[in-house]
Design a protein that fits this description.
Number of strands: 8
Shape: elongated
Strand content: 25-35%
Number of helices: 1
Oligomer: single chain
Radius of gyration: 21 Å
Length: 152
C-alpha cells in the first residue's frame, strides 16, 4: 500500500527511505546536509552562442569555423568554443539557461585544456545565463574548453 497525507506532517524521529524520493515543489533544508553519494545534475540543456570576440569564420581552402557547444544543463556541464579569424578581446561566448534563475547565479569555471589555462578570461552572469569574456584576442583555430558549475 501507500501513504498519502493531505496536510502538514511532522516527523520527530529519524526517517529512512529505501526507494526513490521525488520532491515536486521547492525544498528547504534548515541544517547541514551530508551526501554519501555523487551529486548528479539534470534538466534541459542551455544554448551556447559564439559572440563577437570569437572572431569570424576563416575563408580560403582550409576554413576554421567558429563553433560554440555545450554538453550539460543549467547547473553544470562542459562548454567549448572554437575561435575563428579576427578574434578580439571582449565577449567570447554566452550560455543561455533553459530556465532563468531568480537572481544572477555564481558561475564557477575550470579550464579543460592548455589553451584555456593560458587564456585570461572572466565571467558575467545574469538571471538568464552567463558570458565568458576574454582579455586578449585568441589565435584562429584555438579551442577553449571549460567545465562549469552554476549555483544561486
Amino acid at each position: 500500500g501507500g501513504l498519502s497525507v493531505g496536510g502538514t506532517a511532522e516527523f520527530h524521529g529519524s526517517s529512512f527511505f529505501y526507494k526513490l524520493v521525488t520532491f515536486v515543489e521547492k525544498t528547504v533544508f534548515k541544517n547541514d546536509i551530508t551526501l554519501a553519494g555523487h551529486i548528479l545534475t539534470g534538466g534541459q540543456a542551455p544554448v551556447a552562442q559564439a559572440l563577437a570576440a570569437a572572431g569570424t569564420p576563416a575563408t580560403g581552402s582550409d576554413p576554421v569555423a567558429v563553433i560554440a557547444t555545450v554538453d550539460g544543463n543549467d547547473n553544470s556541464g562542459q562548454l567549448e568554443v572554437r575561435v575563428g579569424e579576427n578574434s578580439t578581446s571582449g565577449e567570447l561566448v554566452s550560455v543561455i539557461f533553459s530556465k532563468a534563475y531568480a537572481k544572477a547565479p555564481r558561475v564557477f569555471l575550470t579550464p579543460l585544456n592548455s589553451e584555456t589555462s593560458q587564456a585570461k578570461y572572466f565571467v558575467e552572469s545574469t538571471t538568464d545565463g552567463f558570458k565568458i569574456l576574454v582579455v586578449d584576442a585568441q589565435a584562429a583555430g584555438t579551442t577553449l574548453k571549460f567545465n562549469y558549475w552554476v549555483v544561486q
